[in-house]
From TrEMBL:
Domain CN hydrolase: start-end pairs: 11-255
One GO term of the biological process aspect: oxaloacetate metabolic process
Sequence similarity: Belongs to the carbon-nitrogen hydrolase superfamily. NIT1/NIT2 family.
Broad class of enzyme this protein falls into: hydrolase
UniProt superkingdom: Eukaryota
The species this protein was found in: Gadus morhua
Name used for this protein in its record: omega-amidase
Coiled coil location: none
SUPFAM superfamilies: Carbon-nitrogen hydrolase
Length: 284
């Protein structure tokens, strides 16, 4: 491997666990300053949480929704360019053609919008006495897979509940991703039970890096996020995490290490695709 290739196989990732308020302007300016802070620490890829510009809740999505391009994506584009980072803009409520989506915009270091991911699997759950949440009351699902290239590796994007679907991660892995990123706001019921477990499972199943970005916990909000933004390596180990407060979580991603794990335990090439296969039906 050349020195350049070796250098490109390592990069710093920053996950911003933002304290989200109901004042959009404040959310945007706080996000902007934390992106700058993360870039100042050498991060090349920066991730914001699900619903970083708006409180998370079906009663808020329409009020905070924007078209793309709009106020929030303008800030993200400028921040990506000013700080020369790839920026996964968490998610924002998006309005398009009268429908609302939970959408993650991704920007390149020149400020270009590389792609948007509209949450594919809407968060509709009912755990009696604990939590009932129906995103589908106000949101429509996306129906496209979302992978983008960086000089370091291919990155696959899902939003929160998308992490529960192992086939999506498997598909992204098959498409060549070395890192899966899920901006997500788990809650006080499913967070302690499933959040870390799902990340480690997706990482181990596919022998790749997994990163999640949650809003910081706010006990006064109608939906209390679990926090605990995390990065997991291809061995299934948590390599960086935090608690419930606002924080920036840093992790050094090493694609050579991923290749080493895949050589040692070669499940990615041992898959019996002659017996079973997960194949994309649409791609963009
Ligand atoms: N925002 C979400 O999709 C929440 C997902 C979640 O909490 C879960 O348990 O799954």
């Amino acid at each position: 491997m050349s020195t350049l290739a070796r250098a490109m196989s390592k990069f710093r990732l920053a996950v911003i666990q933002l304290h989200v308020t109901n004042v959009k302007r404040d959310n945007l300016s706080k996000a902007k300053s934390l992106i700058k802070e993360a870039a100042g620490q050498g991060s090349k890829l920066v991730v914001l949480p699900e619903c970083f510009n708006s409180p998370y809740g079906t009663g808020f999505f329409r009020e905070y929704a924007e078209k793309i391009p709009g106020e929030s994506t303008k800030m993200l584009s400028e921040a990506a360019k000013e700080n020369e980072v790839y920026l996964i803009g968490g998610s924002i409520p998006e309005e398009d053609g009268g429908k609302l989506y939970n959408t993650c915009p991704v920007f390149g270091p020149d400020g270009t919008l590389l792609m948007t991911h509209r949450k594919i699997h809407l968060f509709d759950i009912d755990v009696p006495g604990k939590i009932r949440f129906q995103e589908s009351e106000t949101l429509s699902p996306g129906s496209a897979f979302s992978v983008f290239e960086t000089p370091f590796c291919k990155v696959g994007v899902g939003i929160c509940y998308d992490i529960r679907f192992a086939e999506l991660a498997q598909l992204y892995s098959k498409m060549g991703c070395g890192l899966l990123v899920y901006p997500g706001a788990f809650n006080m019921t499913t967070g302690p039970a499933h959040w870390e477990l799902l990340q480690r499972a997706r990482a181990l199943d596919n022998q790749l890096y997994v990163a999640t970005a949650s809003p910081a916990r706010d006990e006064t909000s109608s939906y209390v996020a679990w926090g605990h933004s995390t990065v997991v390596n291809p061995w299934g180990e948590v390599i960086s995490t935090t608690g419930s407060e606002e924080a920036v979580v840093y992790a050094d991603i090493d694609l050579q290490y991923m290749a080493e794990v895949r050589r040692q335990i070669p499940v990615t090439v041992q898959k019996r695709d002659d017996l079973y296969a997960v194949n994309p039906v649409t791609e963009r």
